[in-house]
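As a warm-up, study this chain.
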Amino acid sequence: MGQRCRLGAAKSRAGARHPPAAGGLGGAGTARARPPRAPVLLLFPVQLGSARPGRAVLPAPARGAASGPAAAMSGAGGRAWLALLLLLLLPGPPGLLQASPRYEPTWDSLDARPLPAWFDEAKFGVFIHWGVFSVPSFGSEWFWWYWQKEKREPYVKFMDTNYPPGFSYEDFGPLFTAEFFDANQWADILNASGAKYVVLTSKHHEGFTLWGSKYSWNWNAVDVGPKRDLVAELAASVRNRTDLRFGLYHSLFEWFNPLFLEDATNAFKTRKFPTSKSLPELYEIVTKYQPEIIWSDGDGNAPDTYWNSTGFLAWLYNDSPVRDTVVTNDRWGAGSICAHGGFYTCSDRYNPGHLLPHKWENCMTIDRRSWGYRRDAALRDYLAIEDLVKQLAETVSCGGNLLMNIGPTHDGRIAVVFEERLRQVGAWLKVNGEAIYGTKPWRAQNDTVTPGVWYTFSPKEGKVNAIFLNWPISGILELGEPRAKLGETQVNLAGYKELLKWVALGEKGMVIALPQLTPQQLPCQWGWTLQLTDVN
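Now compare it with the structure written out below.
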């Protein structure tokens, strides 16, 4: 970490999101509207009386008045015709007649689509893994696979000890009750975290949908368990109570779906599962809930051609209700991860530590061992707020977004440990948010002299932000990267009013005297930001 970061290419990794290592429609609220098209200006007087809607009528000549070309160019009618002629001859405003680009169902075309700017500016989001796996809440959200397919001893023993013989995974469905689920409360917690977007698992690899999908009969939250459209409720609350962008995770494959298993047996030369199940679900959630993030996952080792991923993405970018603002990730089939799509995720908990040439996201978990809620988790399994601030600073300084995961309980609660961590991150961002939101990578990502210092750049303010994770006992912080200028450079501590004193170390580097503050006087407790002007 003490070395200056290099520009590096993302290392391609294939496969679905791996299991953790052992050891405004339909009640969904109103989505953000598309930017209005450039208006057409009418430069001539119109009458709307007898015209059909949307048609303009030029003034008719008065009774007895002359008619014909000569008369048309005189009087009020002439002025109107002249204005119309000028309107047709003069070039319109830039972009007036320019149609939105159309994308072809090929990776070359789809990969050329610019990523909507809001995503890079957001920097921080919250991931929510919630489903039937939240009922056993043991070991991992991969519970069904580990128990039935791999037959791992802890999972088999857990079932033999706590459930009667013959109990199936489907029997957990009615126990996924969500009786304490309060979408407004969740939205308020998400808002307090400082996150700018949220991604909910609409369907994980178990195949259970959190909305009443007509393509998942009797294995969805409306037919079984809560008897509620959980996606619609959270979408509405997030949009009505916060400024967060709402997104949905969707697993392409399902572990034990007979149609998928049949296709896999046929080496994916048949496509029964994607055409009748997976793709219809994707179109359904986009048209019904209008998510601004589609977080795909779980290719089941099938290529993108089996999933028709490029066909879906072409529709999403060209014709869907979220075509102007939607962002997507890179998990659209075997070989696509870290190579194709909107932003790259490359692997779970991906944090390269250096600048990448493509926008990326670090999806990670507060619980070190699981994405879903675990009743068997110990306190040491949860990342501390210091760890989370460190991950956020490292990720953003290297050009990434941080997607921080929580796992609610089967009855719909966000456990207090997750709520505390989210509120702590939000408190930190209230003080240090200028060093995160809307920033760009600086010429150096971390300091070459003092470990634990990460840089970002605020283009609007022209400031370099130095996020340091350890407050020096001496009260003196040495930075090796800034080029300070006497009489021009100013140094501020975020959350502290007075300017700080500093001394330049030749052409490069500076020493900064931090204020002498008691722990109670510190602007925050887990990492601090110096804002530097004129240090390039």
